[in-house]
Records
---
Amino acid sequence: MIAPSPIPLDRFKDSVQDRNNARFFPAEAYTSEEFYRFELEAVWFREWISVGRMEEIPEKGDYFTVNIGNEPVIVVNTKDGLKAMSAVCQHRGMLLTDQPKGNAKGFVCPYHRWTYDLTGKLVGAPQMDGVGTYDKDCLGLPRLAVEVWQDIIFINFDTEAAPLSERLAPLDPIVKDWGLTELRGEFLTDPNYRQTHDYDWNWKVYAEGQAECYHCDKLHSDIPGIQNIDCNSMHINVQDEERGVFAFEMRNKVIDATVNHVGTSIWPPIPTLSEEQRWEQHSIVISPNIFMQLMPDCVILLSWWPTGPGTMRIKRHRLYPQATMQRDDWVEQHKLESEHIRYFVGQDDYAFASVQEGLQSRYAPHGPLSNREFVINGMSKWLVERFERADAEARERASIKEPAE
Ligand code: FES
Ligand SMILES: [Fe+2]
């Protein structure tokens, strides 16, 4: 049940001004427990959320789990297609699995052995015959909507939500030549690779930090790949505030600039790119939880979701052509590349953790957006529209409930 926004929404009006006059959200929006609860209902339990890639669950029965806010979910590949459902057993509430991923024929609750098939249908429960409240058909796992775009899996708690593909259509021409469905995650070649990481900052600190290249040539000034990008050449290709999709582009100073220890590709370029595209860097934001960087030799895909008001989980993918991952020098060279990327990501982590601290100060800013942070302005507009919708709905519901005079 949605309650009205605990932060009056007129305090967000500075964030939805035109891009030259816009500010970040009020600091409380990044720290308040109550606002976090509101945001879960207004955004995370209504919108399409990116949770992973198809190559994570290629075989029938393959599944992974994800916990959005306080909602544990299983995403599973079945013979009837991809399914997403609650991981909460409908008998007593035990979680059906504590594994991040696996392969299953069905899900058996460890507590009293209620058994669900891969689609979430309850197929058996011991000692329930003759129980009046036991209706097998009504006790399946609650379903979520699921959709796949470019091999990226999205789920939606709102099973009536409008389809996602139409919303993402403006991005199709930009991603097309990177052939995202042909690329594969680096995790496939390293069984110890950790895809998810937990952090102590609000998800918007992260989302906003990814969506701007104001900091790139400053915080990351020692990174060769960043030195090879002309951050001043940044221009926007898609700023669709209604759909919450954004794409901006920068020009490389040298061909095949990429974020690694060398600064230019150590791998052959993605074969479907033109020479011109090898001079381009494309950044893509899909609200509320995707950032993608399209580079000449690979693609970075970041997805995230809140785990609390000041905590979040990130799932990272670096996607390469399969031929690159089959090269003899892959393991050795990729190790060097990965070490450098950890160093690069560590610079952002240091800033995000510190910002989260600063936002709790009595002197926390309600700062202006620079002219390299305009995507944040678009993301804010998309979010505030959702806050307003949920707030109005909550108020209407409350007014209906008020007893008549
Ligand atoms: S809680 Fe799952 S079978 Fe009882
Ligand atoms: Fe960064």
---
Amino acid sequence: MRGAYGMDKLSAARAVIDRIDAEMARLFEHRMTAAAEIAAWKQANGRPVRDSAREREVLDRNSARISDPVLRTHYTAFLEGLMAESRLYQQSLLHPELLWVRAASGAYPIYLCSGALREAGDVLELDRTVFIVTDKGVPASYADALAAQCRRAVVHTVPQGEGSKAPAVLETLLEAMLRAGMTRSDCVAAVGGGVVGDLAGLAASLYMRGIDFYNVPTTLLSMVDSSVGGKTAVNLGGVKNAVGTFWQPKAVLIDPDVLKTLSARHVSNGLAEALKMAVTHDPALFARFENSAGYGPVEDLIAACLRMKRAVVEADERERGLRRVLNFGHTLGHGLEAAAEGRLLHGECVALGMLPMCTPGVRARIIPVLERYGLPVRANFDVDTAMRAISHDKKSSDGLIEIVTVPELGRFAFQRVTLSELRERLLMCIEEQR
Ligand SMILES: NC(=O)c1ccc[n+]([C@@H]2O[C@H](COP(=O)([O-])OP(=O)(O)OC[C@H]3O[C@@H](n4cnc5c(N)ncnc54)[C@H](O)[C@@H]3O)[C@@H](O)[C@H]2O)c1
């Protein structure tokens, strides 16, 4: 009897919820239609999509309508989410060229277009203090172009190279942020390659327990890979990326025009990460690399890679599953990078590290592509140094190391191997064994 009564109550409550949800779906469409009109008005009047003062007012006014204090907290969170979606919708209408990454921790746009740097103020919130991190090798005009669009900009330049991904450099950066009087509502912007992006992203995630971060990648590697996905890090004790966080950028701004000043070697270095994604995910993209006429417009290549990276990050933001596929070529690559002591670049080591992870047939197709783009297929290394670095690598547990293998182009598998099996594979890309 009681059971039947309980079921009746359940059905009645569900019916109420169903009715409310149906009504809310109708109201949602209505609300978004109005949001679209507001977006069009803002565009016509040169106003930014986000109006923080109005959002605060809407939030306070409506939250005050909820009498139960517990429910009020839930309602405020609900309304904040709704307003974020509305903003997203407005931005996607105004900028159809934006690529959105919907990570579990929040959505953010990638703005990819020639000349984007000059228009940064249209898509990034620069009406505050912006702490711009760059390195000595990045032409200063890029950081200056961004600085010119900020209410207040502080440009902090670190030495170029992997050596800047170090705790001491991070500390200097954080101290400079404090000295600059950065508050929780200010932001950090990285203008540079993966080194600057990883370092500045980490600083942003730590400062005052985390402030907004914009990534403005200026190398091909950082455009196709490192600027998206929120991995930040510095190296520690010779271990690559030993200290880091997941901290998604608020937006990524990619201006392929800045690649004009990038050296051919660094362009190839970036191609290695693009190839990594093509080999594991996209045989058609790989075929473009095999084309003797070249891989086509760089903007298309960047967009293709970003779509792949986005899908992986959206499925697995914290690298608990699928995202581990992006480590293809990196397990050996990181070891080789440590043993290279600066002789080889990150992408070059990844290129080498991919080869022993493929079947002979796949390897035979990758090698000519690497050679065409000036990437190494064998190198001279101290095997023990590389193996020491690999055994410290974060992917190792219980003496086994996870690797990503490629049985055929466009497919991948995760495998756990012993250090001695890994050593055997490593020997395949070593020129002179010691
Ligand atoms: N966070 C991630 O998901 C992720 C992914 C892949 C790689 N990474 C990291 O990225 C780093 C490598 O990044 P990278 O290859 O961009 O190296 P980098 O940041 O060192 O940049 C390469 C060089 O190019 C110069 N440079 C940058 N932009 C330029 C431009 N437009 N014109 C002329 N010179 C320019 C820099 O001064 C630097 O000397 C590694 O530390 C790697 O671990 C991170």
